[in-house]
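Structure ticket #2291
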Amino acid sequence: MKNQDFSQTNLFVLRILCLRNTCDEIACMKVRRLWKGMVINMFISLEGVWQARLNDAAAGEMKLPGTLDESKLGHRDYGKNAWHPDQEIGNAGEGFRQDTPIATRFTRKYTYEGEARLTRKLSLSLPEGKRIFLEAERARVLRLLIDGEEIPVWKPASISTPYIFEVTGLQSGEHEVTFLSDNSYPGLPHDDIVYSSAATDETQTNWNGILGYLRLRTEEQVFLSSVSVYPVEGKLRVKVRISSAEPWRGCLVLESEALTHSAAVQVEIQGGGREQEIRIEDLSLAQGVRLWDEEEGNLYEMRAALMQACGRERAETEKTVDEKRVTFGIRSFGDNGHGRLALNGRVIFLRSEANCGEFPETGYPPMETERWMEILKQYREYGVNCVRFHSHCPPEAAFEAADRLGMLMQPELSHWNPQSAFESEESFLYYRTELEAVIGMLANHPSFVMLTFGNELHAGETGRRRMDELLELAHALDDTRLFANGSNAFYGWQGCDPNSDFYTSTGCRDAAIRGTFAGMGGYINRQYPNAKTNYDESMRIIRKEFEKPVFSFEVGQFEVLPDFAELSLFHGISDPANLRIIQEKVKAMKLENVWERYVEATGQLSRIGYREEVEAALRTKELSGISLLGLQDFPGQGTALVGMMNSHLEPKPYDFARPEHFRKFFRESLPLLLLDRYTYEAGESLRADILVANFGKTDIVGELRFRLQEEEDMRRNAAGKNVVKEGLLGEIHCPKGGHTQAGALEITFDFVERPTHFALTIQAGEIENTYPVWVYPPVKPVCPESVYETEVFDEKTREVLGQGGKVYLTPKSDPEHLPHSIQAQFTTDFWS
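Resolution: structure written out below.
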């Protein structure tokens, strides 16, 4: 069997005889009648049990779709792969001992890197006169052999998009079908891929197999290979690709409830060619179309049909050659013209979460839309309106779910190279292919709004030039999305890239836009706690070189002690040996009885840190949003348990992790009390301005009120019963899409007689925000005469101690006086 040769050089010759929107009402009615004779594609499933043979002669049965891990094929995981190309951790580098349990990430029960030969004999009954395609939704490097003869891919493929092979000419009967599946990525940039979340063993795992649908698909000799719908400035643009195995002349008709009426384009093809693209511009929208928006999954269907003629006199009798239906949404997303992200013209505040591909039961993301509906709803419970997919692109099912839910999505290429991104020809050519494939696959998904070329990329002159080439390509392919050369590219030290549509980073050179960094840096651990700090000065510096949207990157990373209850959830391909190692240490230290209190304490402190990060970003006038890392525990890179949710995406069974607590501050609109501090002496006055950040869909109107209540009363749900002070601060009108200086508050604590923890609530219209305030009587401690107080361990100190006396040592908190001490900090440890 041989594939037919559809040469790219035999170009289509198109003649547009009947332009868009030119059908009169009678003709359009006749066009609609043609939908009765729909063309239906036939799918033949290839799912089932296949025979797997590895390149070291190990063999066994394997279920497809599925992975070697799930079929228990492979070898012991020794943890040899370093998690990051410029760092060593755990069993990486020198000191490796293969008998040591992996303490830095989950352990794969079975692991294998290399080629796997997957074979099955199939008895097929195939229709005659059709073109036939074999489709594998997701794989690593995949090759196809039928009866020993290799079949080339029909169009360039990537590990993030389906593999499609044309097998037209395949006869009915028994055939031996073999896939060569290789997760060592021959011909591809191996290290760039396996460090990324698409293939790292730190999270998703470098699985080997085939996921999603595995099937044969039939098509006509001339068919619509893709229909892509783009909303552009209040109208629609449609790109249609036609694949033809023979000369053909006919008509393309588009129909949708979202259009004022159908569009018809006469097409004439002279000579066979592989594919040709037709663009139909400026299709008018019907009145009253519903926009796709946050939490509003308003979707429409577009029907595209190829017919043998388009004239009025032949419309009723002409045959439909092929038909495709696609779902799309109508929305605009981009820069509002003033450097802020806007959705449908409304300035929004991005509340993003990073998904790093953590799915410990399977080692890969779900392929089902319904499961992604559950995942995205869980994110939404915590206040998330955008999901960033760290150095990977999830299956199309994730975007189908996001479309329905009104969730924004930011995928990335499967790329993490913090040294030499795109420097090699191999790397550049592969990621160009992946970029084109991802943009094409996601064209009709309104949830797909942004994309970057990978995580924390670094490059020399060649790599930077190629980043610009890829940006130019992305913009040419799709000008309705935003693209950037990387997420936290160059760690921010090269400044903002002028060709990128947005900038997301920890800062720009020395101008930080998040509050915590590795080494416990950042203002949250370096200044007195307050609710006033923002990044206005940093944004002023950034605006000198970049006027497009800016949002922060991987904010938070506050470590929480492990919840050992999660150990009971592991039934799949992962062994949580790293968590058991910690559990054994806890038992050895006899901390089991208090451990849950420790977990709760670190979780509460973590959430306090996240709140400060979020509100500091909300207080910043020019910042378009914040992207967290993260709400879900990250099982690798040293074991980074930073989440409100565990690695299974379930809220941790503690009060601190309840979604409603996090959503109180991680939301689209919030009144912000700009406190200088949280602690006061009795008799002092609290004075603070009130700023309302409103990035919801409507203006906030109503009253501005405050309420002061003792925290113990709040815990007893006694709101309104024992209010110490409350009052009206005026009427407010806070327009959507920005900040409003709503008023000011002053409270004098001359009524406090004992140390008291207050809850101070600010209410703006229907929304509110509560702050903790501590007030203490003005007591000055006096050192008893029997105690010697000193700042230095001097001779007198030794003398007092030698005589059995008491010493109160209060050394200055600096390296000179405390050279061996651990610096005190506010938050829990950073990352892992």
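Closing remark: DSSP finds twelve helices and 44 strands in the chain.
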